[in-house]
Amino acid sequence: MSEAGRLRIGIDLGGTKIAGIALAPDGTTRAETRVPTPRGDYAGTLAAIAGLVAALESEAGADGASVGIGMPGAVSRHNGLIKNANSVWLNGQPFAGDIAARLGRPVRVENDANCLAVSEAVDGAGAGAEIVWAVILGTGVGSGIALRGQALTGRNAIAGEWGHNPLPWPRDDERPGPACYCGRRGCIETWLSGPGLAADHLLRTGETRTGEEIVTAALAGEPGAAATMARYLDRLARGLAHVVNVLDPDVIVLGGGLSRIESVVTALPQRIAPHVFSDAFDTPVRASLHGDASGVRGAAWLWGPEA
């Protein structure tokens, strides 16, 4: 198979499942599958990925595909080992080298939020934009940056690690902020994740509800839930504006469960604007086009259109 016609395989290595996709050169899906993640089992994880790649190539009727892998955490520029992964059995392992050896070909490994950014920059909600900032709002909070369709990793492999910065312009009642698993307090993730939304609602109302239940109640007009969502949107707007003032992206793409709420997406630009250091703010804020498939598609596109 020529380079121009090469199949691209993407693997999204999550904490509970490993998803795989095979893309034709034009971005159409040739095959896709998923398996449970062998939690706590590093060797089992390598075997599961190798099995997925073989299955995808067989179903697509092509071998020698390029392989990209999106995962939590990052490959350390210092020693080549995995760091910062919440799938902790990967930390400290030479994952990129091990899976390349297992597959017998070069493999590109990238943070899963960066894969979201690449996917949406190539053929998603940020297609054609030079700088795409993709934000994940779900069980955790993270972000990735795509520059001209390619992941921006950074010198320390932490570009886009937005969730573990402090909430900008905190009010007195937001200090010092909730404790975060990283050892600090008041991280953006503690405020803007689904669990963070639920914790804020419990603190203010005494009600134990999931993020989804809070959103549903707010849309139905329940005052307590509506107030919780108003605080959430204000904090989200401040968090986004802080990065706009540094990165000035061409488009902001939202992924994760909370991005599916149209009222959240549409309300953000006017809430962000007062915090942006500019005479005008017209950066579009969009929900991801590919939704839950963005991560695995972005992993496939790590090799770029030239692969």
How does this model look, in words?
The protein is an alpha/beta fold and 307 residues long. The protein folds into two domains: 8-112, Nucleotidyltransferase, domain 5 (2-Layer Sandwich); 125-288, Nucleotidyltransferase, domain 5, CATH 3.30.420.40. 36% of the residues lie in helices and 20% in strands. It contains nine helices and twelve strands. The strands form three sheets. A five-stranded mixed beta sheet has the order 3-2-1-4-7. Helix 1 crosses helix 2 and helix 5 crosses helix 7 (223-247). The longest helix has 25 residues, at 223-247. Keywords: Kinase, Transferase. InterPro entries: ATPase_NBD (IPR043129), ROK (IPR000600), ROK_cs (IPR049874). It comes from Methylorubrum rhodinum.
